[in-house]
Design goal:
Shape: elongated
Low-confidence stretches: none
Number of strands: 9
Order of helices and strands: HEEEEHEEEHHHHEE
CATH superfamily of the largest domain: Nucleoside Triphosphate Pyrophosphohydrolase
Helix content: 25-40%
Number of helices: 6
Distance between the termini: 65 Å
Structural class: alpha+beta
Radius of gyration: 21 Å
Largest sheet: 7 strands, mixed
CATH architecture of the largest domain: Alpha-Beta Complex
Mean pLDDT: 91
Length: 237
């Protein structure tokens, strides 16, 4: 039998398939706190519960996992993140009452964007303070996925300026330092932080200023290669 003959007679329904979904953990820095984007489910299972935006992969229109997660974000929240990266794959027979389920979870940091419901399967969408989310009963295993994404961010805050992607541009140096401190859960030495930022040369001075505490502060944007830069040593806390 040739491969063409094999494929012509192959029946994908002859084997039991698992439920395959994508989910997204999006973080932003807003109102001086870290927030997570959640949707409220209007269908079973977990009717009325809050959870991550995501859903089933459509084999006819999604050409990749990333296309699938971006489509679901657009459909359910009207949010378009500037980038997105794969966080983890989670799968077992317990996470979904409908059957054996696998989700490929993505995560991203982004400046605050307004969100709105775009589809009937969602009754509400909202940026929730992370501290509140960690105390909420969420759908499926979404709390575990959020905790894993949060841990990755904490590690990145130690050795990079990636947390700056959570800020709406342009931003000040104190704002950039504060989002690092929020992720690390402790204060950072200001002089050391400013020295690391200057050495990294990853900020673009916009020439604009904002008055903070009675003094004008320079406003900055991140350079495109910020995501790939790493400090030689972790930040000093």
């Amino acid at each position: 039998m040739t491969e063409a003959e094999y494929l012509a007679n192959y029946d994908p329904k002859a084997f039991k398939t698992v439920l395959l979904t994508v989910d997204a953990v999006l973080f932003t820095y807003h109102d001086q706190q870290l927030k997570v984007l959640l949707v409220q489910r209007s269908n079973h299972p977990f009717l009325g519960f809050w959870g991550l935006p995501g859903g089933f992969i459509d084999e006819y229109c999604d050409q990749s996992l990333e296309e699938a997660v971006l489509r679901k974000l657009q459909e359910k929240t009207a949010i378009v993140p500037p980038y997105i990266e794969q966080l983890c794959t989670m799968g077992n027979s317990r996470r979904d009452v409908r059957g054996w389920s696998v989700t490929v979870c993505y995560t991203a940091l982004m400046g605050y964007q307004a969100c709105q419901v775009q589809i009937d399967s969602v009754s509400d969408v909202k940026w929730w303070p992370l501290e509140d989310v960690l105390q909420m009963p969420l759908a499926f295993d979404h709390l575990q996925l959020i905790e894993q994404a949060r841990e990755r961010l904490t590690q990145k805050a130690l050795y990079s300026l990636v947390p700056g992607f959570a800020l709406a541009e342009p931003f000040t140096l104190p704002e950039l330092q504060h989002v690092h401190e929020v992720l690390l859960g402790k204060p950072i030495q200001s002089k050391s932080f400013r020295r690391r930022v200057e050495q990294a040369d990853l900020l673009i001075d916009t020439g604009l200023k904002r008055t903070e505490r009675g003094r004008p502060a320079n406003l900055y944007r991140l350079k495109p290669d910020t995501a790939s830069y790493r400090f030689l040593r972790n930040l000093e806390c």
